[in-house]
Design goal:
143 residues; 2 domains; two-stranded parallel ribbon; two-stranded antiparallel ribbon; 4 helices; 11% strand; elongated
């Protein structure tokens, strides 16, 4: 794990693991996060999970490229398509304030969400690559 990992981005209640006897601890995000966590209290995985063999809470260490914001994706969209594409994206991401949190970069778009938006533009005949406002590579903590 990188030393610059932002522990503030862990969701509330995200269980960490302290099981040093686990055979997969070196590749498990839950274990690696707990080694250098900047917290004094949290939920954790208990040793009883190893009775069944494989840990059901194993979370591989992986990074993903997320998109931050998409204010610029409508620049080349024809006026006749704009409101319908925007409506479909809002329905997909969440209406109201949720849509704007994604649009303004307060929430990041997963690779799956990015691809869904790209496919939507293709269905409307737009062949240019959809470029989001900016990108970051982060640790994937989503279950």
């Amino acid at each position: 794990m990188d030393k610059d990992f932002d522990y503030g981005k862990l969701p509330y209640g995200w269980a960490m693991c302290y099981l040093s006897e686990c055979s997969r601890k070196e590749e498990c995000m839950r274990y690696q996060v707990c080694l250098s966590a900047q917290c004094t209290k949290n939920q954790c995985v208990l040793p009883t999970v190893l009775r069944e063999g494989e840990c059901p809470y194993f979370h591989p260490i992986r990074k993903v490229r997320v998109a931050i914001g998409f204010k610029g994706i409508f620049r080349e969209v024809k006026e006749r398509d704009h409101s319908e594409i925007r409506r479909r994206i809002a329905n997909y991401l969440g209406r109201g304030g949720t849509y704007y949190r994604y649009r303004n970069g307060e929430r990041s778009l997963t690779p799956k969400q990015q691809e869904w938006i790209r496919q939507l533009f293709r269905r409307y005949g737009y062949t240019e690559e959809v470029v989001f406002d900016r990108y970051e590579t982060i640790y994937d903590i989503r279950d």
